[in-house]
Amino acid sequence: MRTKKLFTTALLAASTVKAQSFLEVVQKTPELSLFSAIVSGLNDTFTDLLKSLGPSDAGRTILVPNDQAIQSFMVSNNIKSPADVPVEKVIPFLSYHVLVNNISSAQFAKPGGAVVETKLQDERYALLGNNSGQVVFGTRKESEEKKKAAVEIKSGVEGGAVQIVKQDVVFNQGFIHVVDGFLTLPTNCSKTIEHQGAERLVTYIKRLGLLDTLDSYPGATCFAPSDAAIENALPVLMNMTDAQLIDAIKFHTLLDAYYTPNLKNGQVIETSLIGASITVNVVDGDYYFNGVLAKTTNDIARNGVAYLLDGIMPLTFNGTITPSMPSTTSAQSTSTAPPTGTSTGVEGTETTVGAGTTTPAPTAIGTPNVAAAATARGSIFMAGALALLALF
Hints:
Layout (H helix, E strand, L loop, with lengths): L1 H17 L3 H6 L5 H9 L3 H7 L8 E6 L1 H10 L10 H10 L1 E2 L5 H5 L4 E4 L17 E9 L4 E7 L7 E10 L2 E6 L9 H8 L2 H9 L3 H6 L3 E6 L1 H11 L4 H10 L1 E2 L13 E3 L6 E7 L2 E4 L2 E10 L2 E6 L21 H4 L35 H5 L5 H12 L1
Parallel strand pairs: 1-7, 8-14
Antiparallel strand pairs: 1-2, 3-4, 4-5, 5-6, 6-7, 8-9, 10-11, 11-12, 12-13, 13-14
C-alpha cells in the first residue's frame, strides 16, 4: 500500500512538471483565441495577478470565457478588437475569474455545490471583511438545452449564471474551466435584492434610512421578502411603527455571510436583531428559514449574500414549514382568518421541530413537519407580518 501511494505521488509530481503554463495552454486552445489576445495585450498584468496568489506550487483555478462569450462582451461594451480592451476595466473581471483554490468540476458538482473565494478584492465589488476576495458559487444544474447536467457558476445576479463547457484542463498550477460567459461583478445587497424581485422591501429600507447601513456592512446575509410577500402583508405593515419595521428588517439580516454550503438542516443562527434567531430547514433541496421558502439562494452581493423569500419570516418558529404559494393563486382566494399568537400561518396541527441552543454554529434539532406543510392553508405573508407586529 505504501509503495502504491509513493508511486501515485511521484506520478502526480511528474505530470505537474510536464504540464504547460497557463498562457501556453490558452494559446493552444482554439476556442480561447480572443482571451489569449486580451491577456497578451495586458503585457505582464495578468501574469502578475497569477503570481500574486502565492508560491508557484500553490493550486488555483481559472475560469476562462470562450470566444463566443468574449465576442458578446465586446459588442455589449462597444469594443471593436481585443487590443482596445481597457486594462482598468478588464482587470476586475479577470481577477474575479481567478479562484484561489484548486477546484475540479467534480467538487463544484458535489451535492450542495461549493463556494470558492476569488482574487477579486476591489472594494467596489467585494466587501466581505478581513480583506477577503469575492466568491463564486458553483453547483450541478440540469440543462434543458443540452439535455444533460452541467456545472453552473453564479456571480453577480445582473448577468445570470455561466456554465462550464470544457472542464478540468490542466496547467502547471491547477485547473482551467472554460465557461460560456463572463462572470458579473456583484452589486450592493440592496441592488441585488431589488434585481431579484424585492423592490418594495428596498423602498422601505430607503424610507427608514437603513440603505447605507445595509450596503456598507461587510459580509452580511440579506433575507428579502418578495414583492408579492410585501403586497400581501400591506394591511399589517401599514399599521406598524417605523421602530417595528426597523426591527423587522434587522430580523431579516445576519451579520455573517451564510451560503447554502454553510447551512445545515436544523441549524439556528442569530440575526442582527438582538436576542432573535432563525432556524434553517432543508427539504428536498429547498431551503426554509423560520418556515419560509427561499425562492432564490446564494445571490452573490458585493457585501455578502442574499436570499429572496416567499414570505415574511415570523419572529418565533414553531417547527412547521409552509410550501410556496402557487403563482396563479391570489392572496384573497387563499386567505382565511388571520392566525394569532406565534403561528407561522399553517393551519391545523402545529408540530414542533424541537429546541436548540441559539449559536452561529450549526445546531441539529430535528426535521420539519413536512406533512403539516403539505396540507397548509392560509397566507404565510399575513401570518409572518402579524407575528412580527404582535411580538415587537
